[in-house]
């Protein structure tokens, strides 16, 4: 049934049923067979999940999908298959497979070392079983492998992973096989497993390695390629060798980015050499901010999202550099907005700056750059700026409406439901507001144990699944760059203005100086005075 | 895990249709690593489970019964965003009450409560806001750095309610939200005016 690396075998005999027919307690894996074939439906669903679409496991939609794939009866069975199902109640496909597959082609983990949900997703397993599944001879579960490689750093070191993969390559045949059985084992098990190991190493080198900190593993893998070549896998060994050369030569990750047509809109260039804030076109400012912010967003790596790495004061700079930089830049933009408005002594000037920042935030919104938009709006909404009633009164209603619209997008009600919906519906490019992902990751981290409650030996892989869904969504928006031209002058101007704001209290005092608190009667007399009555 | 709280409240994660239930928005704030997300998770998911998926809409929505009346509560907890300097703005609009969380085992987190409270007042421009001060991680009493008396005294000075909780042992978790409603509903009478959420009052 093995069709080569990377080829899914939706209806082939899958893991669970093999070799276990004579043993009791094959329950969990038995279900995996049915679920293995439900994979296609499963992976579709994963995509939906990425977009935050509620996917209730019992939903009719899912039933419908299963029906499409397997027909009415089996769909029902697949859905109703309880974890405690006995072999008698296995769906026909699985049963047939049980009869076909000899015991020596079974999976390389004990049934009690893995728990698989009715949907075929691994809920929990030992590290050993996870690696066995990662390199399974007769199934290829792409979403599983992706989740594993995105999140393994939260439950294993790269050293452990490498050693387990190498050990997997050295798989031994079970004792007592006839010559014929042995050659079947070689072709249907040993070779596929070895190719899987090769494939995992390949994709690790292509997409999951961390430049710098993972460098020493390059030597280990290089030594391993000799072993591969020695076992008749010269070509795969050569392929890995080439990848290793690239990595050692300092070539970065294979980033699969869309290639853009040469059709960036012409930038609106500043007219003077000495650029002044109010003279920069709001849309162009939004574009340059979007280019810059997207660049930062793209630096975020999957492992930074694990274990709340960014919130650990001691190690965040090292473990979550990309997230830290995104947040600190956001704070600097917020600081810039507040400071530069509060520094204007003249009310009309203040109003002009306020207006321009609203227009820039709105330009960011139109470019799907919710990150910079939120940073600017936060500055406008900060207490010292927010209380400048007289400045706000000087604004055209149009700007107030614009700002209200942006506040509404980012309102935290219902767990940012409006914002999430908007982001899921738009077409990239987009710079999402990272904070919402960080909150999701925090709740996944704190809301789920690292190991299964029912068996502490088992890594809670469901938790990693959920973490990976968030990471995958983050990565979706990393993949599409903005089709815009860089205007270096404007970017330099922005960089020069990104500052850490003074502390809240100083800003607040500054705000009180500009527009002192006044009682209602004081306000009335001021208004009368200003309008010439007094 | 200890049994669920003995408080008289009942709650259900609600995917309820829009109803006549009065809506209350409650924000949970505090410095990082005080266990505020654990507190929220514990309250919303009565039992800790192996899989908790927070990103679906409505998970932070809960119907809380207080004095025989049901309230549709939106619990706003932006844990994980603590490094953003935006607390004072985005989290103040339309909030009825605040849960201010510190860890009894972390002095600095206790001192943050006053700072956060002042920020909120800066923003709302009111004299006080309905608050519950929560000393989390009461199970870490060996490492206690903030005494019960100090906690109570701070809460009194803020005219707030006070309670110590342990999300880990599910101690007093529901009590937090019961106290919160007692604060937001203070002074409201049957048929009387709705409590106003904080909004921009310019000083």
UniProtKB/TrEMBL annotation, chain A:
SUPFAM superfamilies to which the protein is assigned, alphabetical: Ras GEF
InterPro entries, per database record: Ras-like_GEF, Ras-like_Gua-exchang_fac_N, Ras_G-nucl-exch_fac_CS, Ras_GEF_dom_sf, RASGEF_cat_dom, RASGEF_cat_dom_sf
Gene3D superfamilies tied to this protein: Ras guanine-nucleotide exchange factors catalytic domain (1.10.840.10), Son of sevenless (SoS) protein Chain: S domain 1 (1.20.870.10)
Keywords of this entry: Guanine-nucleotide releasing factor
GO cellular component terms, A-Z: plasma membrane
Ranges for domain N-terminal Ras-GEF: 118-248
Stretches with biased composition (Low complexity): 25-40
GO terms (BP aspect): Ras protein signal transduction
Organism domain of life: Eukaryota
Keyword Flavoprotein: no
Entry-linked Pfam families: RasGEF, RasGEF_N
Span list, region Disordered: 1-58
GO molecular-function terms, A-Z: guanyl-nucleotide exchange factor activity
Ranges for domain Ras-GEF: 281-517
UniProt protein name: Ras GEF
Automatic annotation (TrEMBL), chain B:
Protein name: Ras-domain-containing protein
Catalytic activity: GTP + H2O = GDP + phosphate + H(+)
GO biological process: signal transduction
Compartments (UniProt record): Cell membrane
GO CC terms of this entry: plasma membrane
The family this protein is said to belong to: Belongs to the small GTPase superfamily. Rheb family.
Ranges where the record places region Disordered: 1-23
Stretches that traverse the bilayer: none
Pfam families reported in the protein's UniProt record: Ras (PF00071)
Major localization class: membrane
């Amino acid at each position: 049934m093995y069709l080569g690396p990377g080829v899914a075998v939706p209806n082939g005999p899958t893991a669970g049923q093999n070799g276990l027919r004579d043993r009791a307690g094959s329950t969990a894996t038995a279900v995996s067979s049915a679920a293995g074939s439900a994979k296609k439906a499963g992976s579709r669903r994963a995509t939906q999940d990425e977009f935050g679409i509620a996917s209730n496991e019992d939903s009719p939609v899912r039933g419908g999908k299963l029906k499409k794939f397997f027909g009415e009866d089996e769909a029902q069975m697949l859905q109703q298959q309880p974890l405690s199902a006995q072999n008698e109640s296995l769906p026909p496909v699985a049963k047939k497979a049980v009869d076909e597959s000899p015991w020596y082609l079974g999976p390389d983990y004990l049934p009690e070392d893995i728990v698989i949900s009715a949907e075929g997703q691994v809920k929990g397993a030992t590290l050993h079983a996870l690696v066995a599944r990662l390199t399974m001879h007769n199934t290829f579960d792409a979403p599983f492998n992706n989740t594993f490689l995105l999140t393994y750093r939260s439950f294993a070191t790269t050293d452990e992973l490498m050693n387990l993969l190498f050990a997997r390559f050295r798989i031994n045949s079970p004792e007592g096989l006839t010559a014929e059985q042995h050659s079947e084992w070689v072709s249907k098990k040993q070779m596929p497993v070895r190719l899987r190991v090769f494939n995992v190493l390949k994709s690790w080198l292509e997409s999951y390695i961390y430049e710098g900190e993972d460098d020493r593993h390059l030597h280990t893998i290089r030594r391993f390629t000799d072993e591969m070549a020695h076992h008749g896998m010269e070509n795969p060994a050569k392929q890995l060798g080439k990848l290793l050369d690239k990595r050692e030569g300092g070539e970065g990750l294979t980033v699969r980015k869309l290639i853009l047509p040469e059709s960036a809109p012409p930038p609106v260039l500043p007219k003077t050499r000495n650029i002044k804030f109010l003279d920069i076109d709001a849309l162009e400012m939004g574009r340059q901010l979007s280019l810059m912010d997207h660049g930062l967003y793209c630096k975020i790596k999957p492992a930074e999202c694990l274990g709340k790495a960014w919130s650990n004061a001691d190690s965040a700079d090292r473990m979550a550099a990309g997230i830290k930089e995104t947040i600190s830049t956001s704070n600097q933009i917020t600081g810039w907005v507040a400071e530069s408005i509060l520094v204007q002594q003249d009310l009309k000037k203040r109003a002009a700056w306020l207006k321009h920042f609203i227009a820039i935030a709105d330009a960011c919104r139109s470019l799907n750059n919710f990150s910079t938009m939120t940073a600017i709006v936060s500055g406008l909404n900060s207490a010292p700026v927010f209380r400048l009633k007289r400045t706000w009164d000087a604004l055209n209603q149009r700007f107030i409406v614009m700002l209200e619209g942006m506040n509404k997008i980012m309102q935290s009600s219902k767990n940012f439901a409006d914002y999430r919906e908007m982001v899921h519906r738009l077409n990239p490019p987009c710079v999402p507001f990272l904070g919402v992902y960080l909150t999701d990751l925090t709740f996944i981290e704190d809301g789920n144990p690292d190991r299964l409650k029912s068996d502490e030996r088992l890594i809670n892989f469901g938790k990693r699944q959920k973490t990976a869904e968030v990471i995958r969504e983050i990565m979706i928006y990393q993949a599409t760059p903005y089709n815009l031209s860089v205007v270096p002058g404007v970017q330099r101007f922005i960089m020069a203005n990104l500052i850490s704001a003074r502390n809240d209290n100083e800003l607040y005092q500054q705000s009180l100086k500009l527009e002192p608190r006044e009682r209602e009667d004081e306000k009335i007399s001021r208004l009368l005075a200003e309008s010439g009555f007094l | 895990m200890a049994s669920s709280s003995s408080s008289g409240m009942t709650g259900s994660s609600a995917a309820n249709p829009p109803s006549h239930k009065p809506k209350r928005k409650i924000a949970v704030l505090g410095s990082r690593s005080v266990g505020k997300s654990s507190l929220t998770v514990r309250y919303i998911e009565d039992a800790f489970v192996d899989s908790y998926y927070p990103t679906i809409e409505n998970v932070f929505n809960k119907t809380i019964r207080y004095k025989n009346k049901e309230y549709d509560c939106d619990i706003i907890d932006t844990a994980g965003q603590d490094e953003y300097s935006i607390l004072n703005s985005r989290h103040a609009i339309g909030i009825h009450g605040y849960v201010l969380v510190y860890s009894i085992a972390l002095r600095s987190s206790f001192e943050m409560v006053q700072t956060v409270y002042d920020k909120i007042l800066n923003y709302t421009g009111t004299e006080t806001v309905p608050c519950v001060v929560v000393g989390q991680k009461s199970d870490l009493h060996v490492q206690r750095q903030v005494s019960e008396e100090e906690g109570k005294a701070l809460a009194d000075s803020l005219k707030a309610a006070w309670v110590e909780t342990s999300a880990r042992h599910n101690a007093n978790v529901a009590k937090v939200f019961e106290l919160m409603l007692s604060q937001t509903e203070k002074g409201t009478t049957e048929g009387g005016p709705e409590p106003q959420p904080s909004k921009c009052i310019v000083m």
